[in-house]
Structures are given as structure tokens and as C-alpha cells.
Description:
Elements: H1 2-11, H2 18-38, H3 43-50, H4 56-77, H5 90-107, H6 111-119, H7 123-149, H8 161-165, H9 169-195
Amino acid sequence: IMNALISFAAAVPPIAGPSALVAAVLLGAVFGFLLHRGGVACHKVIVNQFRFRAFTVLKIMLTAIVVGGIGVLALNSAGLANYHIKAANLLGVVLGGGVFGIGMVVLGYCPGTAIAAAAGGSVHALAGLAGALLGGVLYAFSFPWISAKILPIGALGKVRLPDVTGVPAWVWFAGLAIGAVVIFRLIERHERSSSS
């Protein structure tokens, strides 16, 4: 399967110039449409994920991670893309993830679903986007302090799990895919037992 994906990726010509802008707009529109169709542009769906009452968000995220991961692996293996690895600053990731998670629970959207919901007419999603822009500005102004005081704590540099463990990337992605299938099965079992 991986060889077929690599062959397909190598056969697709790169998109550049004005065509890239058109492709970005079209893909963005399709992505927004799919977010609405998947139900994750509704704040109740996201909040119910955190309340363990609905698992739509988890299913969509796991699918996106597995498909995207395999796609990136195929593109990288075909020489059509390069990994752009961000530095693993553990304290920064933990604090940022905590702020992101709290904001997602309070607002009921992540940034992408907030944009989709705002495009669908949600006023509180617009308010959340305004807050996100304000937070981005405050982060930019405070970045010198953050880079001096927070980012050095637990800084591992630009590393990947295959580099640290010596286990090939395809094994990590295979494990991720198997883990996703197991989680899907557990969710289905839970949903069946809850509905009966």
C-alpha cells in the first residue's frame, strides 16, 4: 500500500503560482464543508466530547491524524515533501496545550471549527476568534519573556520519535493506525452499551 501511495504522490505534478492560491481556497472550502457535515462546527458536539457523551470529535481527529500521517510519510518517502520539525519544548507544549484545551472547552470550538462556525453565522464563534486574535497579539508581545523563561525548560530540540527511539517512522504510523482501530472499536462498544 505504501509503495502505491508513493507512486501516486510522485506522479502528481506540484501546484505553484496562482493555481496554488485557487487550490488553497477550494481545499479550504471543502474542509469547511466537511467540518459542518461532520458536526464539529457545532459547539455542543465539541463540549460533549469533553463530557464523554459523544465521540464525533475523537473519531474525526483520529482519522485525520492517521490519514494525514500516512500521506506525509508517503510524500516524504517520494521526495515530494520534507519534514519541518518544530522544537520539542515540553513545558511550553504542556502550558500551551492546557490553555488551548481550556479555551476549547469554554468556547466549544478549536480555531479551525470556530472559523467554520463563524462562516456559518455563529456569533459566539466570532467572539471566540476575536479572543484568539487578541491572545495571538499578547503572545507575540510576550514572546521574548516566554522564550527566555519557559521554552528552555524541557527543551529537547528538533527531534522525532523515530530519531529518539531508532524505530522507523512507518512502524510508528502503523502503531498509530492500529491504536486508532482499537479506539474506534472501544468507542463503538461503549456507544452500543449506552444505547441499550
